[in-house]
Amino acid sequence: MLIDTHAHISYKDYSDRIEEVIQAAEDNGVEKIISIGVDLPSSEECLKLAEKYPSVFATCGIHPHEAGKAPKRYLYELEAFIQHPKMVAVGEIGLDYHYDFSDRKIQRRVYHEQLEMATSLDFPAVVHCRESDDDILEGIQNSGLNQGVIHCFASNVGFAQKILETGFHISFTGMITFIKELEDVVKEIPLDRMMVETDSPYLSPKPFRGKQNQPKNVLHVAEKVAELKEISLEEVAESTTETAHNLFTKLTSTS
Ligand SMILES: [Zn+2]
Ligand SMILES: [Zn+2]
Predict the structure, then answer these.
(1) Is there a contact between 163 and 188 (Cβ–Cβ < 8 Å)?
(2) CATH homologous superfamily for 2-252?
(3) Which end of the chain is more exposed for a tag (fewer CB within 10 A), N or C?
(4) 208 C-alpha to center of ligand 1: Å?
(5) Measured in angstroms, how far is the CA atom of residue 156 from the centroid of ligand 1?
(6) How far is the CA of 6 from the centre of ligand 1 (A)?
(7) Relative to the alpha carbon of 202, which ligand is closest?
């Protein structure tokens, strides 16, 4: 059994076939899907899906792309969302210096504020990091938060090791099936510190490149991890699922 720890199934891309997508995941051994919020409305949508489908769980947060549009009282709204039994993490939060859709100063403020909130609530964070390694690491270290994940890991072994020292984990997408440089990271970091995700609807793994991604494809990410680490798929599934349950403790909620 696998968990897709990061999917944007609240996006309109799926609205006309969401049931089919969730069913396909279940039929393919994906027992749980974490539906990731990127702003307040999408976080609310994620919660609605979590309330409707037993296998779906939610996160709430302001993505760096949306940081410039975050309403003043967003932290209060997030804190209210977090009370929900199926709300498993703050996220996704972070810094994206590749697209720079929000001013970097604002990105940093909103990232730091959410890290602080997660720390004070003793709650894990899902972090997006794109060409912003140093500032991401510094933010985590300064906040003292020791539970979370760098999702869609796209950097090098050195950065991965520094992240692991903070207590954070690393999650891989389908990028490991088509970006050669990431293979070393998968090989080098311990199996028990990694998770798998699709980041649907983006980043379809091989052999589905160019098509819309969906949670059932997390199998292909896990298969690539197994191949690179020269272990069985079962071992990868068991370990990544256990890691996800240990990090996102509310994944055991049933209501
Ligand atoms: Zn992201
Ligand atoms: Zn995402």
Answers:
(1) no
(2) Metal-dependent hydrolases (3.20.20.140)
(3) C
(4) 20
(5) 17
(6) 9
(7) 2
